[in-house]
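One thing: could you explain this record?
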Amino acid sequence: MDLCLSGGRVIDPRRRLDAEADVLIEGGTITRVAAGIAGGVGPGVRVIDLRGKWVMPGLIDLHTHLREPGHEYKEDIATGTRAAAAGGFTAVCAMPNTTPPNDNRAVTELIVQRARQVGVVRVYPVGAISKGLLGETLAEMGELQESGCVAVSDDGRPVMNAELMRRAMEYARTFGLTIVQHCEDLSLSAGGAMNEGPVATRAGIRAQPGSAESAMVARDLELCALTGARYHVAHVSSAESVRLIREAKSRGLPVTCEVTPHHLTLTDEACAHYDTSAKCNPPLRAAADVEALCAALGDGTIDAVATDHAPHSAVEKEVEFEQAAFGMIGLETAVPLVLALVRAGTLSPADFVTRLSAGPARVFGLPGGSLADGAPADVTVVDPEVAWTCDGRALRSRSHNTPFSGRALRGRVALTVVGGSIVYSGEQPA
């Protein structure tokens, strides 16, 4: 059935639109955005009253761990995409650190096929930079691109070898792929379970300095200048990394970056009482880093908000802090956490949409990011004022490792539409 999303506040920065309007969806595409459409539609169009809600292009997550193949006990494509839909994401980029890793055509094609069979949102695979994610030999990037990969990354493992990274950038440029780097100098971070600073000292936890990230950023920016390849910094977390990226952009380098909601929201104090759900990599930083990240998101230095949704089972999280796995789930809490920055004046509503939709689409050259006439009908509807309390065990992810469980949040997804089909509505899947 065709849809008319009626009376909401339509926010589409690409169209320079922020006004009450109706969005008409016919045959899976957006055919018209204007005021007063609902009164003239025929009986074959379902009209949905969205007064008081924000209607925007579908959100896109550049950094999602769906865990399939190999770790389906944590998450799989079916559960992960349902969590994405509940979080307002109409598309996610699936990272390659699966088992086996996504370093060849067969694994990419499996992910694409499974997404078509059981996924409820669009899934874009990210291939590996190196075979086996070992940082020793380049993966076949041409093959990965042909089979559906939109970028390449050894995410979770930095490419330590500078010569290999140079060659990776050269090959990625040949195939029109973006290099995505988990920036971490392992010689500096080795053994560190949280951010180096007073909190780690008081807690007695081995730590890693922010320079473990910024040193790798600095190296790779020089290689980016050398090769001209598109380079993307994953989950940037430190003030110094932001400074380096801002400077690189001023030089005209093809550099982009993302930040997670948790790095915008939490500091290393969240780890002070050994809460393993707050253990992530890069680690939560100091308040000054959070301030720098928020400012960079507001001024556009940071191109996108990405969740780094990293599901883990209780077996991997309910252990001693230093032994626990890194990472937290984030698909279903991203919207309220970033909306808090809008209420704080850090972001405008248009910035909110850009960083979660148009920005991510631009970074990887993906479809979406606008409600343009003729565009695929991928739409997210948010109720910005609804209050709710996060319950990790009530979220749709198969795993429950979130430090926001029990936290009062404001703003929630009301409707998610992918290709003209409602994939999430309110509290229940459509």
